[in-house]
Specification:
Helix content: 55-70%
Strand order of the largest sheet: 1-2
Number of domains: 3
Largest sheet: 2 strands, antiparallel
CATH architecture of the largest domain: Orthogonal Bundle
Shape: elongated
Strand content: under 5%
Structural class: mainly alpha
Distance between the termini: 85 Å
CATH class of the largest domain: Mainly Alpha
Length: 292
């Protein structure tokens, strides 16, 4: 059974350990047993060092020879049952260790085309993906949209499997995407945006309180263009953070807004035929020089 907001994604106390052990191992790490085991063993080493537990002390508590413990850690090849025994010595559970390993993994800057296709294949899954990228809480999702608790958890689990979030107990989640994350420029999500969203968004007047539309055209260096992109990304991050900060406000004190930030090297299609070509520019310059 899928948990509710008061119980999280694990069904019961009795089933929690098994769910953490196998679900996190198989799903959170994508089933890569070799590299994941190495990561888990490396994390165990770090935890033992932090706890001040030597290999000799660990061997004594596990009823093993110290040489056997050293050999297992040196090979970084340890069965899950042995990992579980070491965790008992450390007084940790597998979910906590898995989170530490996951937190150390590099964040995604974009999804694969296959992952994006899966997201846009279901309108509600796409909605929750956007909510997660915008850092909405579980409670906000079910309060704002026509989703039951179980339905919302079902979609969050799908986003977990797709690698967009790591779903945690009590229906909290950790984003597994980098701050500079973007949908693939010509991928399924951006195609959906162009087809179903862009015209609807820009059809507004942008003249109400708290609304604006600004178009600025100019020529700047490529290095400065990259600087502007970073600054614009920070604006998006600030907007998402303000969304979190204003959760404490009543519904009467806030309104839904959508911020779209874009910048590209581009010339209006209506004006492209008026632009001089590089050859024409050079010829014109040479003509002026000759006349002088």
């Amino acid at each position: 059974m899928i948990g509710t907001p008061s119980h999280g994604i694990y069904p019961s106390r009795e089933g929690r350990e098994e769910a953490c052990l196998w679900y996190r191992y198989a799903v959170l790490f994508g089933g890569n047993a070799v590299s994941t085991t190495h990561d888990l063993v490396a994390a165990l080493k770090a935890e033992l060092k932090t706890a001040g537990i030597t290999y000799a002390e660990l061997a004594q508590q596990l009823g093993m020879a110290e040489s056997s413990i050293k050999r297992v850690f040196a090979k970084a090849d340890m069965p899950l049952s042995r990992i579980d025994e070491v965790l008992r010595v450390l007084k940790m559970d597998f979910a906590e260790l898995a989170r530490k390993v996951a937190d150390a993994q590099p964040l995604r800057r974009e999804l694969t085309l296959e992952q994006e296709r899966a997201v846009v294949a279901d309108r509600k899954l796409l909605l929750l993906a956007i909510c997660c990228v915008s850092q909405w809480t579980f409670e906000q999702m079910v309060a704002t949209y026509q989703l039951s608790d179980a339905e919302c958890v079902k979609y969050l689990l799908q986003l977990d499997k797709l690698g967009i979030i790591e779903l945690r107990p009590l229906n909290r989640y950790r984003l597994k995407i980098a701050k500079g994350f973007r949908w693939q420029p010509h991928g399924p999500v951006m195609e959906y945006f162009r087809k179903h969203v862009a015209a609807d968004y820009y059809s507004g007047g942008f003249d109400a309180d708290g609304e604006t539309l600004l178009l600025v055209h100019g020529q700047i260096s490529t290095s400065q263009a990259a600087t502007f992109v970073e600054r614009l990304q920070r604006v998006g991050q600030d907007f998402a953070q303000q969304h979190l900060a204003d959760q404490k406000l009543s519904s009467e004190q806030k309104k839904p807004y959508t911020l779209i930030v874009g910048m590209r090297s581009w010339l209006f299609a209506a004006f492209r035929d008026l632009k001089r070509t590089p050859v024409a520019d050079s010829a014109a310059a040479a003509s002026i020089t000759t006349r002088r």
